[in-house]
Amino acid sequence: MSKITIDYDKCDGPDCAECVDVCPMEILVIEGDKVVAKNTEECNECMVCMDVCPNEAITVEPEE
Ligand code: SF4
Ligand code: SF4
């Protein structure tokens, strides 16, 4: 299970949504005016979301 943190001071939200588009597990979703992480236990730790984020707003920390 991974700890996925979105820094809302840096995140551009649904106007960006780059991470939402690339996540292969559909963990990152738009909810209202925010991008949120759901079902984080299904994260495969591919780190693609961190790679595409233009603002370094998202952090994935693998947890045992
Ligand atoms: S690390 Fe991969 S699977 Fe996990 S939230 Fe990011 S893009 Fe999705
Ligand atoms: S890619 Fe980064 S800035 Fe864009 S919605 Fe995701 S966390 Fe926010």
From TrEMBL:
It comes from the Archaea. Residues 2-33, 34-63 form the 4Fe-4S ferredoxin-type domain. It holds the Pfam family Fer4_10. Keywords: 4Fe-4S, Iron, Iron-sulfur, Metal-binding. InterPro entries: 4Fe4S_Fe-S-bd, 4Fe4S_Fe_S_CS, Fe-S_Ferredoxin. GO terms for molecular function: 4 iron, 4 sulfur cluster binding; metal ion binding; oxidoreductase activity. The keyword Metal-binding applies. Gene3D superfamilies: 3.30.70.20. This is 4Fe-4S ferredoxin iron-sulfur binding domain protein. It comes from Methanothermus fervidus (strain ATCC 43054 / DSM 2088 / JCM 10308 / V24 S). The lineage of its organism: Archaea, Methanobacteriati, Methanobacteriota, Methanomada group, Methanobacteria.
